[in-house]
Design brief:
Shape: globular
Number of domains: 1
Subunit structure: Consists of a catalytic RNA component (M1 or rnpB) and a protein subunit.
Strand order of the largest sheet: 1-2-4-3
Radius of gyration: 15 Å
Order of helices and strands: HEEEHHEH
EC number: 3.1.26.5
Family: Belongs to the RnpA family.
Strand content: 15-25%
CATH topology: Ribosomal Protein S5, domain 2
GO molecular function, one term: ribonuclease P activity
Number of strands: 4
Helix content: 25-40%
Distance between the termini: 22 Å
CATH architecture: 2-Layer Sandwich
Largest sheet: 4 strands, mixed
Pfam family, one: Ribonuclease_P
Length: 141
């Protein structure tokens, strides 16, 4: 993989309120867990998805959201550290799902990583769990 493909650009981050509502609101999403992370994902069709506007579907075939609830870490420093670790692990291993989604035309994959633990973990453990989740998602789509 080339260097410029290993970036995590703004277009690869799930920011659109409509897409987030599509991922969590309506049915059709799937979830899997590799403690301390839970991944919620949904493969949407760009042509037939009526609830999502055309502006929201542009940037990337795979979009990612990382959520660390305030319930688990009261201090923002710890929440930001965990989000940074998860984003870095995803950036390194995103090719597992990106290649599968690129094979399918007019499809977009939305993934949300949600932190479940009350404790901080080292980056190696988080990277293994994210890699595991991405491989399992890649097999199912």
């Amino acid at each position: 993989m080339e260097k410029h493909e290993e970036r995590l650009r703004k277009g690869e981050r799930l920011c659109s309120k409509k897409l987030i509502d599509t991922l969590f609101g309506t049915g059709g999403s799937h979830a899997m867990t590799a403690f301390p992370l839970k991944a919620v994902y949904r493969l949407i069709d760009n042509k037939t998805e009526t609830s999502v506007s055309k502006e929201a579907i542009v940037e990337s075939k795979v979009q990612v959201l990382v959520s660390v609830p305030k319930k688990h870490f009261k201090r923002a420093v710890k929440r930001n550290r965990v989000k940074r670790q998860v984003r870095e692990a995803y950036r390194k291993h995103k090719s597992f799902v990106a290649l599968r989604v690129n094979e399918q035309t007019d499809k977009q994959l939305l993934i949300a990583f949600i932190w479940l633990s009350n404790e901080l973990m080292d980056s190696v453990t988080i990277e293994q769990r994210v890699c595991n989740l991405l491989q399992r998602i890649g097999e199912r789509i």
